[in-house]
Amino acid sequence: VLERPRMKNLRHLGSLLASAAATCIFGVAIYSATQAHTGRTSPPGYDDTPVLPGQKWRVHDIKRPHPPVVTPGTESSQARPGRPPSDAIVLFDGRNLGNWLAHGKGKDKNKAVAPGWKVEKGYMQVVGGTGALFSKQKFGDCQLHVEWAAPPRIEGSGQWRGNSGVLLMDRYEIQVLDSYDNPTYADGQAGAIYGQWPPLVNASRKPGEWQTFDIVFEAPRFEGDKLVKPAFATVFQNGVLLHHRQQIIGRMAHKVVGTYAPHAPEEPLGLQDHDTPVRYRNIWVRRVKGYDQQ
């Protein structure tokens, strides 16, 4: 009778030893497999594969140029703007309006004048009546990042509540508006391609909070006076898709259908003065080139 607990303990010990041995063997197998995979290489490319349809390159072509390296930026928060990507052209970093001019008004109409907007605390703010801004640099196909905030104090309604606009090529407008619990016509709310296409959704934050537009823009193409390719825009507001490569009908217009008129392949970026104190910060642009272009 006294031997039974002893035998039971021996069996338990044997089970533990067997489990430990199995674990050890499994660990050795994993280690061996890892060691076997260390230092593996693959060919840098091929020159005997099929040519891709519509391209001059082969599948995995060893001669195909590599894309340039870009260091990603960082995300913005309500407290501070993020850092742009390493290849971005920064149009406003919160310090001054040195990269901008304004469209003159009154006796200065059709002239470029010094901007009259206010700069403070890392943002620029519309000063009503001083004129819309446009960038000194010109752009065609591009990726654009703009951060904006409607006035924290609600004044007016509809189109008189935090109204401004991002003018691609200084003529194709993505609407800026306080659209948080502020009904207006659908193709005139925040993120609309103004007067043409409403956004897919209303992704607006509360007035006074910073909002973001991330826009991929394809400029129109002209041959002489003839439009051969319209403009297209993909737009995200606060990370939410508003337009997916949507064709732009024409220039920004109010109460009529916008049309195209020939212009240069690159034009300035514009910011609208609609006589409400909208704020902007952290504006940058990346020129977009085709595949295999350095």
Please explain how this structure is put together.
The protein is of the alpha+beta class. It is about 10% helix and about 30% strand. It has 1 helix and 16 strands. The strands form 3 sheets. Strands 1, 4, 5, 7, 10, 13, 14 and 16 form an 8-stranded antiparallel sheet that branches. A hairpin with a 3-residue loop joins strand 8 (about 165-170) and strand 9 (about 170-175). The longest helix has about 35 residues, at about 5-35. The termini are far apart. The model has no long low-confidence stretch (mean pLDDT about 90).
Indicate the radius of gyration in whole angstroms: 29 Å
CA(first)-CA(last) distance: 87 Å
The low-confidence parts are: none
Helix and strand element order: HEEEEEEEEEEEEEEEE
Discrete helix count: 1
Helix content: 10-25%
| Mean pLDDT reading | 92
DSSP strand (E) fraction?
25-35%
Would you tell me the structural class of the helices and strands? alpha+beta
Largest sheet: 8 strands, antiparallel
Strand tally, please? 16
The geometry reads as: globular
Provide key terms for this protein.
294 residues, alpha+beta, 6-stranded antiparallel β-sheet, 1 helix
Write the SSE topology.
Blueprint: H1 3-37, E1 89-92, E2 100-103, E3 112-113, E4 118-120, E5 123-125, E6 133-139, E7 142-149, E8 164-168, E9 172-176, E10 211-218, E11 221-223, E12 226-229, E13 232-237, E14 240-247, E15 267-271, E16 279-287
Outline of this structure?
The protein has 294 residues and is of the alpha+beta class. Helix content is 12%, strand content 29%.
